[in-house]
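Support reply, case 0932

Customer input (verbatim):
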Amino acid sequence: MKFTDGFWQLRSGVHASYATEVRDVRLDDDRLAAYAAVKRVERRGDTLNAPLITVEAYAPAEGVIAVRLTHHAGRRGRGPDFEMPGAAARSAATTRTQGPTAELTSGPLTLRLPTEGTFGLEFLDGDGRVLTSAGRKGSAFATLDDGSHHMVAQLALGVGETVHGLGERFTPYVKNGQTVDMWQADGGTSSEQAYKNIPFYLSSRGYGVFVNHPGKVSFEVGSEAVGQVQFSVEDQTLEYFVIAGPTPKDVLARWTALSGRPALPPAWSFGLWLTTSFTTSYDEATVTSFVDGMAERGIPLSVFHFDCFWMREYQWCDFEWDPAVFPDPEGMLARLKDKGLKICVWINPYIGQKSALYEEGVREGYFVQTPEGDVWQWDKWQAGMALVDFTDPAATAWFQSKLKVLLDQGVDAFKTDFGERIPTDVVWHDGSDQERMHNYYTHLYNKAVFDLLEKERGQGEAVLFARSAAAGGQQYPVHWGGDCWSSFEAMAESLRGGLSLSLSGFGFWSHDIGGFEGTPDPAVFKRWLAFGLLSSHSRLHGSSSYRVPWEFGDEAVDVARQFTRLKHRLMPYLYGTAVETHRTGVPTMRPLLLEFPDDPTARVADRQYLLGPDLLVAPVFSDDGTVEYYVPEGTWTHLLTGDTVTGPAWRQETHGFDSLPLLVRQGAVLALGADESRPDAEWLDDLELRVFAPAGTGDFTRTVTVPDRTGAVAATYEVVREGGEVRVTTDTDRPYTVTVVGETA
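Our regenerated output:
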């Protein structure tokens, strides 16, 4: 939200008060508080009829400093509040006074503020370098003529500093110059709205900032004040965390340690998912024809998903199969599972009035209510739909009980769709604030479903396909990019959204291969296949048309087969990366910024990514195969062709539909499985270690671990080259082969 009219003036109707002068500082062992007047105090009378801004600082975790700005402290906290499972029981900080300065230090991060005179905050890294600061207008509140009250903070941007993240945003990847509002919306991928609003940003200078407020947070990223990131909330209190690096990976590790690390998805979920699409016509015969058609064409399939119309029209959700279309759901699921498939079904948290569950929910009081005590309803999406109140433990258990019936029938996963259009003129069971619950609702929704899956299927077997999320939602993977058009432009905007989400702490991400709305041109579909099957999770899904590859020609079948089988071969490497994501919070699909933070070009690259630490992927966004991409420093080898390229350099290449830039970093040892037929094969059977050693005869050592399907270490290989000779030692007696790229093994 903008409060100023240019640099010098406030907008009409805005009255701002800035922390100006330190009047008192109080230090405890592990926290501090400062009291700042909003004007210069030259005489005693200046302390009358004027506010103070209270500034408190503490450390919720090592390397994280929280700053809380408060005008009036008497407002009752109604929640919800973000859960911080990694928060320390007490402040993880020490304090000291050094001359006219107070300091609070946590790990490699220090907050420094004056104990007298002009108010200001500086955040320093372990080397004493100022990462950012809150200066003359950095701690404030503003009142508007409409009666609203806003807390406002500004943190300085350095020259050349770039800002990333803020959730899954489809706007430009670098957020500088943008206004970004945290407000869940069902806006597709072609607008500034977002399904996943995460009030966390990552700076190229090696720190992160999280605004600890689940409601509407308005960011002005070098926009209102071009040298500042401003954020504001309509409240009496604003709390933000500054998170130390020094590297972007370190920032994400600290952030996800605090807010929750991603669960490890099951290995089978990394295979290809095929769906019925949304409004298409289908029954068991149609589904079987799709499944058998994939098998006949040699395209391995891991999961089949039933979208909305597995239930009867107007009755979403009643969680009952449409008996006119699926008269024998248990038998059908058993027949599909006999073909080696896992099953996913679509759900949402809305109960249409025609659903048999509606009366039950009304009777038990499980739905969100109006201030008058009625059930809140509207006709958008489903006629007379009500909203399950997940702040009520009984309503949550009731919702889970309906899903358990489906699990007992043979369902393995749920697509948790929707959860964004949450009203603000309602009453919640636990008294939650309406504005704060708008964004947070989806967190409760996804958690309820994920918790049920873990309880019924066991830890490591739970997986969602979720559209919306709030901060901390990375704990419940997987998330997909929502409704996009079937075009190259939408393919690129989907990637931008995924890159931004990954820099917000989300480790696993997917998208609709071929696009959702419309029917893609065969060229779009084939290019999107390669991109989708080199993402952490891969799903063929559309709206009004099918996405089986043969609908787009024989070559599309070949491309689907090739890249599905390639992904399966990559699974020892890819699942090892997933384990790293689970343990550290560093995402599986990585913007170049994470691996090359000192490369200015890597900071802005938004049409490519790294799949794990060693594979660079540059999707092709053209039907003629032309692709322009950036190669970071070092020698890289095309995995598909064996050609080498050296960076840093921009490249322009032309690729057929069976290819794209897929480069392996020099020094990598890729663990490749032999079984191309499934993602959860026995990876140690005839494992190949493909060594991309540095050129020449220099010494070279790499340790490779291959996980089992639980994420535990199944085998370790130490690859050493000395004097031009490569040798491998391992703790397993399983047979393996070694291929040294560019040399004779």
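We compared this against your earlier run and they match. Two observations from our side: The chain has a mean pLDDT of 97. The two ends are 61 Å apart (CA to CA). Please reopen the case if you see a mismatch on your end.
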